[in-house]
Amino acid sequence: MAVTVLSMVALVSMACASTHINRILADPSHYGDRQVRVSGSVVDSYSFANRGAYRLGDESGQLWVVSDRGVPRKGARVTVQGTIREDSASAASAIG
């Protein structure tokens, strides 16, 4: 299974035209190398040297977000905009 990764550009406080996570996971090639905006709650959060990754979930699914600008705490509601990347080497689905 391919991993879908969202490279985070910015956290924003308002959700505008957010894409449901299940749409991205169902057809990651359609969103590949495109800017998307997703909203949800942080399920897991890992930080190291002002970088990190966190799993973002909405009512339709979950994916990983990789950030070079720090990560929100577990349970936070966020909207993130970034670029979808796929990694076919992994068996997990992710946005990063």
Tally the beta strands: 5
Please give the share of residues in helix. 10-25%
> Biggest sheet, open or closed, and with what strands and sense?
5 strands, mixed, barrel
Order of helices and strands: EHHEEEE
- Low-confidence segments: 9-15, 89-94
Overall form? globular
Overall pLDDT level: 80
Tally the structural domains. Answer: 1
CATH topology: OB fold (Dihydrolipoamide Acetyltransferase, E2P)
* Helical run tally: 2
Radius of gyration: 12 Å
What is the C-level CATH assignment? Mainly Beta
Using the 3D structure, state the CATH architecture: Beta Barrel
Across the major sheet, the strand order is 1-4-3-2-5
Assigned CATH superfamily: Nucleic acid-binding proteins
Strand content: over 45%
Termini separation comes to 16 Å
For this structure, the quaternary state is single chain
Structural class by SSE content: mainly beta
Question: What report would you give on this structure?
Answer:
A hairpin with a 2-residue loop joins strand 2 (35-48) and strand 3 (51-58). Residues 9-15 and 89-94 have low confidence and may be disordered. The longest helix is centred in the first third of the chain and has 6 residues, at 21-26. This protein has two helices and five strands. It has helices at residues 21-26, 28-31, and strands at residues 3-12, 35-48, 51-58, 61-67, 77-87. It has 96 residues and is mainly beta. It has a five-stranded mixed beta barrel with strand order 1-4-3-2-5. The chain has one domain (3-87): Nucleic acid-binding proteins (OB fold (Dihydrolipoamide Acetyltransferase, E2P)), CATH 2.40.50.
